[in-house]
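Q: What residues go here?
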């Protein structure tokens, strides 16, 4: 059975594995453009009366099927996962999303590579951040898995009657409030003793490498859109710093003085990022193939040109 046939089987049979309240639901499977122009097939089940429905992507389930899992077991797993992704405590209706005053407190940021998301950016308001782009989403509820979001499109922005700048300022403030930033020593993650250096009164001990992310470690690279948080990092470490974009979920911070002391050049750090991207990070979760510098005095984020490869980023 090829992937197209697999999708048809899921579409035709998944309701047999769903709870009774989904008995008359409509099943849809459609292509969704994800980060870095990765196209995925998203399953949505539109239950009577439901306003917001999750999408569950089928590629990993197809892989399980190819690895020998029966179609019945695959359908059962999909049904269980879908229920977990369904919003338990709905905060928004479709009308709420289209009303800026009702949605504005839940608008947050997401940071993506501009060059590799041209198609996505045509349909969504965005703000340039060096060679990255800041896009926006509304956090619409909580599931058993985590937060559920819906992207802000140009159509939604027009219906709100606001500007990109209005959305950006609101989203940056909300992101830190709803998903507080965390700066933690890399070795503390390994040993399970994580301490957030950004917490008030938390003493900083010099580290070669630190992870900068958010509390739930999902979409944590959005912190790059917040100059105040990056400024706070530079104050904590009392130095400018390099940023290694390890994924859309987290970045690695290296104080510039530490890098100099350890003989880590920008060129070598860029090579490290590209190696990790190629071997350990899925294309959908990659952020960039070179490093950035936050200047403590200028309060600015810029690409470190020496870290760039002469060939095109992320094309490997």
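A:
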């Amino acid at each position: 059975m090829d992937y197209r046939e697999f999708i048809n089987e899921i579409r035709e049979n998944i309701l047999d594995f769903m709870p009774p309240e989904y008995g008359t639901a409509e099943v849809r499977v459609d292509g969704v453009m994800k980060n870095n122009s990765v196209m995925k097939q998203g399953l949505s089940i539109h239950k009577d009366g439901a306003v917001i429905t999750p999408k569950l992507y089928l590629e990993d389930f197809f892989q399980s099927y190819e690895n020998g899992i029966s179609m019945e077991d695959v359908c059962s797993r999909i049904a269980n996962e879908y229920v977990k992704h369904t919003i338990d405590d709905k905060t928004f209706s479709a009308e709420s999303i289209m009303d800026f005053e009702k949605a504005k407190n839940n608008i947050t940021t997401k940071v993506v590579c501009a060059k590799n998301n041209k198609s996505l950016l045509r349909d969504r308001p965005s703000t340039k951040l060096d060679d990255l782009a800041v896009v926006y989403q509304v956090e619409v509820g909580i599931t058993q898995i985590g937060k559920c979001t819906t992207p802000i499109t140009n159509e939604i922005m027009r219906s709100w009657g606001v500007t990109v700048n209005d959305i950006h300022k609101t989203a940056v403030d909300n992101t830190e409030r709803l998903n507080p930033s965390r700066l933690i020593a890399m070795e503390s993650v390994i040993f399970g003793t994580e301490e957030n250096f950004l917490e008030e009164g938390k003493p900083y001990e010099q580290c070669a490498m630190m992870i900068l992310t958010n509390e739930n470690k999902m979409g944590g690279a959005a912190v790059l859109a917040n100059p105040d948080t990056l400024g706070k990092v530079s104050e904590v470490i009392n130095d400018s710093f390099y940023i290694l974009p390890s994924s859309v979920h987290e970045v690695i911070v290296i104080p510039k003085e530490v890098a100099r002391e350890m003989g880590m050049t920008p060129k070598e750090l860029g090579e490290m990022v590209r190696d990790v991207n190629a071997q350990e990070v899925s294309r959908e979760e990659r952020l960039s193939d070179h490093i950035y510098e936050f200047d403590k005095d200028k309060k600015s984020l810029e690409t470190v040109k020496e870290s760039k490869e002469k060939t095109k980023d992320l094309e490997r």
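A: Context that may help when evaluating the design: DSSP finds twelve helices and 13 strands in the chain. The mean pLDDT is 91.
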